[in-house]
Amino acid sequence: MAIDVLLGLQWGDEGKGKIVDVLTPHYRAIARFQGGPNAGHSLEFNGTKHVLHTIPSGIFHEGTINIVGNGVVIDPVVFLKETNALLAKSVDVFSRLLLSKKAHLILPSHRLLDMASEAAKGQAKIGSTLKGIGPTYMDKTGRNGLRVGDINRADFMDRYRFLVKKHEEMLGHYGFEYNLKEMEEDFFLGIENLRKFKHIDSEHYIDNLRKAGEKILAEGAQGSLLDIDFGSYPYVTSSNTISAGACTGLGVAPSSIGEVYGIFKAYCTRVGSGPFPTELDNETGEEIRRIGREFGATTGRPRRCGWIDLPALRYSIMLNGVTQLIMTKSDVLSGFKTIQVCTAYQTEDGLSKNLPFDIHPEFVTPVYTEMEGWNEDLTGLKEDSQLPESLKRYIEFLEQELEVPITVVSVGPDRDQTILRERFKVG
Ligand code: GDP
Ligand code: IMO
Ligand code: MG
Question: Is 161 exposed, middle or buried (0-12, 13-18, 19+ CB in 10 A)?
Fold first, then answer.
């Protein structure tokens, strides 16, 4: 049985959490493959909103196995909060969630280093979520990191102290003031909580499920334009957010990948620094932010808003091998008389339908096609046939331009506000 992948095609916050929750009944297991508590995945049902950071978005379904893969970085402090929030909602998280022994740990000193590094960058800061993501992945690739499997080693404390000593030297170099002791208390409570979970060799576990004919969905975090290799570097995150990341982040062979669901908003948002060619730094952008409630699920920061960007989406579709597209938040655009679609960029080499090396404003000018908007409230719609004609035309236009079918249209934040179209299929 193939492993399907669901991931974001823009700069994150496309609605991955909501859609994974909707698709979970089709799968035996949901496995997160990268990122960490920089992610904020929201899902809603029965009038309640839930936000997850590290824990896969299949956790609310009884009988579903949720796996945190080796590619994820876990902050025991955030993870303890997530655990307690779920327990308070009577979700038996201990039986539903398995952790890879190879997932790396975010230490309090990684968070301090993230803060120090951003402060030192000044105006050029990445706009990191300050969750310690960059420094933790740096220690992973630098071969210094601590992993979930290490917490049961007799010398865990020695290893911890050794790494923290190195971090303290680095913090000294930054001249950054801190109080690590207080942070460590929470960290060690978090470590105790991690011990309560089952730690697995997730690559073997997933392979066995697959061989037994079970369906697995790999859940991505962030978005393709934040990918460490292919995103708008250096304004990116520190992991591979593309489908290749599902292979390395779960130990799955490329030949085992089935459907690749690429999710995008009917418009575009970005939080943090970095270029955003179709950004609307004006009233229209504010209107989208207000109606779409575009505020970060992790940091609460206002998200920058703009029109849909097809060169960027084409690039993401290519990198990921997207087989089905999922469009969210079409309801947010209801009431806009016209909608602009960026179909190409004007560059110094002429018109380009692809993403050039640098997408800062001095290198690209978006070229727009204007489309008629729709006025209808979409949030109660249940079927494709009920969609307004101008939205149908918008969907058809995007499908033509992107050459991949849009098989799911989301019309609101709730689980039930989701239209599975005729060509939707599970791998
Ligand atoms: P993720 O990081 O990709 O999981 O996305 P976030 O949860 O950070 O942000 C998406 C936001 O949009 C959340 O508040 C969702 O509840 C909400 N959302 C998802 N799909 C839709 C939709 O179709 N319409 C509206 N109005 N909101 C949506
Ligand atoms: P989800 O999974 C949106 C952004 C940050 C910053 C950059 C680097 O909810 O879609 P980091 O903390 O990773 O070092 O920050 O990446 N970023 C996200 N933006 N959604 C996310 O996750 C993000 N995770 C990181 O804002 O610009
Ligand atoms: Mg999010």
Answer: exposed
Report the C-alpha gap between 378 and 414 in whole angstroms: 13
pLDDT digits (tens, 9 = 90+) for 345-377: 999 999 999 999 999 999 999 999 999 999 999
Question: Considering the entire predicted model, what is its pTM?
Answer: 0.98
For the record, the structure tokens of 186 come out as 């929470």
pLDDT in tens, 210-259: 999 999 999 999 999 999 999 999 999 999 999 999 999 999 999 999 99
Q: What is the pLDDT of residues 192-211, one digit of tens each?
A: 999 999 999 999 999 999 99
Q: Which of 20, 57, 328 gets mutated to test ligand 1 (max ligand atoms within 8 A of its CB)?
A: 328
Question: To which residue do tokens 């579709």 refer?
Answer: 317
Q: Closest ligand 1 atom, CA of 221?
A: 2
Active-site residue numbers?
13, 41
The residue whose C-alpha atom lies closest to atom 21 belonging to ligand 2 is 222
Give CA–CA dist 60/87, Å, rounded. 11
Do 410 and 327 form a contact (C-beta atoms < 8 A)?
Answer: yes
Atom of ligand 2 nearest to the CA of 298: 9
Is residue 54 within 8 Å of residue 91, measured between CB atoms? no
